[in-house]
Amino acid sequence: MEKYITASPEETEQLGFKLGKKLQGGEVIAYRGGLGMGKTCFTRGLAAGLGYTGEVTSPTFALINEYLGGRLPLYHFDMYRISDWEDLYSTGFFEYLEECGVIAAEWSENIENALPENTITVSLKSLGDEKREITIEGIELKAI
User: Fold this and answer.
1) Which domain holds residue 59?
2) By the 8 A CB rule, do 108 and 93 touch?
């Protein structure tokens, strides 16, 4: 487990970028953290680290945003409204697990029992203003 303190959205993006550079495909990133903690900001960096150059937005209303065109595809899920297995199946989550891309799941607490064993967890917590404590479990970034 590694802890980081970021002082701005740009620093949060940079941390996501570092993680994206390290990914090989097939990973699931489970985000933990409430509204406004920087999950989408982190994902912007993650996508950039995967080589994606387009716009990255919150999947709140779409449930899933696909970012293709980088060295690996990124599938960005919003699991906020997922309350049971039927809801989860309807998102296509299990089909995306079979792809060789990367899944980033916001509100992953709602699908805890469906997450693979080797899931990378990214927990974001506010320390006031734009400062965040970000804990990453399941992969080491400091070796970068």
Assistant:
1) 10-111
2) no
